[in-house]
Design brief:
The structure holds two protein chains of two kinds. Chain A is α/β, with parallel strands linked by helices. In chain A, about 45% of the residues lie in helices and about 15% in strands. Chain A has two domains: about 30-230, no CATH class; about 295-380, no CATH class. In chain A, the strands form two sheets. A seven-stranded mixed sheet of chain A has the order 1-9-2-3-8-7-6. In chain A, strands 4-5 form a two-stranded antiparallel ribbon. In chain A, helix 11 (about 300-320) packs across helix 12 (about 330-340) and helix 12 crosses helix 13. Chain B has two domains: about 1-155, Immunoglobulin-like; about 225-435, 3-Layer(aba) Sandwich (Rossmann fold), CATH 3.40.50.410. Chain B has 13 helices and 20 strands. The chains are: A alpha/beta, B alpha/beta.
Chain lengths: ~375, ~425
Amino acid sequence: MKRAWVFGGVAALVLFVLLAVVTVILPESTNSLPGSLTNSRPNGSRALGQVLTSNGVATTQVTTLDEAAAAPAGATLVVYLDKELSDEAAARLGASAADLVILVARDDATSVRSMSNQLITGTTWWSGGSTPPVAGCGDADATAAGTITPSFTGLTSWYNTGLTTCFTDPDGVSLYADVTTAHHRVTAIAGDRWLRNDTITANGNAALGLRVLGRNAQLVWYLPGADVERQYGDIDTQPDLITLLPGWAKAVIGMLIVAAVAAALWRGRRFGALVREHLPVAVPASEAAGGLGRLYRQSTARGHAAAGLRAATLRRVAAQLGVPPSAGAQLVVERLAEATGRPPGDLALLCYGPPPATDADLLTLTAQLSDLERELTIHE
Amino acid sequence: MTISGRVPLLLLVGVLPVLAYPVPLVVVGWTVLVCVLVALDLLLAVRPQMLRIVRDLPTSVRLTEPTASRLTITNPGGRTARLRVRDAWPPSAGAAAERPLLRLRGGESLRQVTRLLPTRRGDAAAAAVTVRSFGPLGLAARQRSVEVPGVLRVLPEFRSRSHLPYRLARLRELDGQASVHVRGQGTEFDSLREYTAGDDVRSIDWRASARAVKTMVRTWRPERDRHILLVLDTSRWAAGRIGGTAGGTGQTRLDAGIETCLLMAALGAASGDRLSLLAADRRVQLRLPGSTRSSSVLSRFANGLSQVEAVLTETDWTGVAAEIDKLCRQRSLVVLVTGLDPAIYADGLGTVLPTLAHDHQVVIAHVTDPSVELRTLEVTDVRDAYDAAATGRLELATLALADRVQKMGVEIVRAGPDQLAPAVCDRYLALKAAGRL
C-alpha cells in the first residue's frame, strides 16, 4: 500500500517534469500571438489573411528570421514590428529581395530606419487625434483607401527623396510612407489599429490592407520572435562568475555536488519506521475555574467577582481566627481588628464594602485582601 | 538499501584526481567507480532475512524503573555479518539509542541490549526491529525491518510506598502487637495474658485474675476481614492535569487516584482486610473482586491499574452503584476517588450517594490542585483577579457541598495529589481504630 503511494507520487512528479520540459521546448502557438494571421481574437489579423487568400494571394506565416529573409523577389515580406529588432536582424530584413511592408505595431520603433535604408523614421508621435485622416497624397493605394484608423505612433522622413507620405497631420507626421530603393519597394504603415480583426471593417482599413498586401501573388507574414529582439546593455555587463573561475573549479564543484547528493542520501535514509505513541487524554485540572473566570471577565461581573473574593478570603481568615463560619460581619471585623491592629472601619469597608466600580478597583481590592491574609499569617 | 558515511567521504577523495585532471570524464568516472563499489558491497552483504532474531523481555516493570530489552541475533550462514540493529520502541518507553556495529561470524549468536526507562504507564508494545547489514567494505547496507513481538507492561509508579512503613507501624499499634492497647468501640477481644509493667491498668480482667493466681490483662485487636471497595472515577475529572495546562508534565488526578488505590491495597492487605477495586466511567474499565490472599492484592491491582486510562465522558453513577451492590454483599468501606464538583453533583454522584452512605461507610477522596490555591495570593492583573474570584467561588461551593455530604455520614478527604494517598490511609486507620468499618 505504502509502496503504491510512493510509486504514484514518483510517477506524478515525472509526468509533471516531462510536461514542463515539453512546454518549454515546443514553440509558442501562433494562434494567440497579436497580429498573427491565424489568430481569430480581436488582436489578430485572421480576417485580413482569409480575404487575401481567397483573392489568390498565397500567404505563409513565419516566425524565424531565416524563413523571413528567404522570401524571394516578387513576393511581399510583411514584418509585424511589435518589438525592437537587433541591428543584424533589421539589416538582413532590409536587404531582402522581396518587397517590404513594415507594420509598425510598437511605439518608438527605431528598427524601421535600419530596414528602410535610413529613409523612414518610426519614432515620432502622430498628433492628428483619433479622427480618421484623409490620405491627401499621390499614392494610389492610400488614395483608394481614403481614410484609415490612426494609432499613436507616426512616421517621418529625414531625407524627402523619392518618398511618398500619406495621412499627414499638420506637424508633417504621416501614417503611411512608401519608397522604392535599389532592390525593392519599402512601405511602412504606422500602427496596428487598422488591420486588427476588430477594426478591419472600419473606414478604409480593409481597402488599404488588401491593396498594399495584395501587390504580389505571394505574401510572407513575419512575426519576429524573442531570438531577434534587441538586447540592451550588451556592452557594459559584467563577465559571468563562472567564467572568472579557474578551469579546474567546474570539475571540482561537480565532484562536490555529487558528494553532497551522496551525503543527503546517507543522512536521509531512516533507520526503520517511526513508532506511534498512544497518548492519554489530559485537560487542565483548573478548567472549571478558568472558564468561570473568563465568564466573569467577559461580562465584567465585578460585583460577583468581588463578592467571591471577599467570601473566600473571609472563610480562610475566619478559620484562622477561630471564628465560626456562621458568625456575623460584626464579630469577624472585631476579631480582625484585634488580630491586625487596624481600625475596624477600614476592615469593614474592605470586607463588606460596596462592589468595585472599575477593573483597577477590583485589582486593588484583590491586593488588599491578600495583604490582609498575609498579615494574619505573619502575626501567627 | 542504504549507504554509509564512507560513500560521500570517498566521493570527496575524488576531488584529488579531479584536481589533477580537471575534465568532466574524471568526475563521471570516479562517481561510476564509487557506484560499482557500492553495488559490490551490497552484493556481498549478508541478507537480513537470513538472520534469526529472538527477543527476551521482562513482562512488567514499574514506571521510572530501568529495564532492558534483549535481542539475540543468530547468523546461521557462513559469511560474517556486519550489523547495526535498531530495536524500536514508542518514545515513552525511553529506549536508549545505542546501536553499536555488531560483527557476527557465521554460526555465531550475539545479544544486543536496549536499555529502557519507561515514562508512561500502560502497555508498551515493541515496534519492528530494523537490521542494517553492511558489506565487507562498509559502504552500503541492506536494510530490512522484522517484527519481533514483545509487550512490556509498565506498572504504576507507586511513589507513595514511602508512606507505607509509618502506616504499617500505626496498624501494628492498633493490632495489639505493639505495647499500647486501647480498647475502643468495634474492637475484638483477642486474648488474655499476664500483666507486665506499663500495661494500662484499665485493661486488667479482674475475673480472670481471680481465677488465675496472676494478674491478667485483656488484649484487643481491631476488626479483621472487613471488605474494602476502592472505586476509581476515570471520567473527565480524572483527566485533569494538576498544576497547569493540558500540555504540561504534571501528574493527572488519575495518577493520584492510582497511588491512593495502591497504598490502600498495600495497607489493607497487611491489616487482613479484603480489597476490591472498581475503575469506571460510562463503562466499567476494571473490576477486581476481593481476594483473601493478601500477598497478591498489590500486584493484581498494579497490573490492572496500569491499563486504566481517563476518558472524556461523565461517570454513569447509577451503573457504578449497581456494580458496588454486586461487589459488596455486606457493609463495606467504599472509597470513592472522585471529585466533589457542585456543578454535576446533583445529576451524578448525588443520585446514588444517599443510598450508598446508608448501606456502607463511604469515604470520598478528592484531589485538589495546589497551584489553584496559590492563585489568590499572586494576583498581578485583572485577568488574575477574575480567575481568583472564580476559584474562590468554586471553592466555597465545593465546601458547602462537602458539608452537606458529610451530614450523610460520608467521610471526605481533600488533599493535593501527593498527599491524597497517605491522607486516605490515615482516614482508613482512624475509621478502623474507631471500629466504624
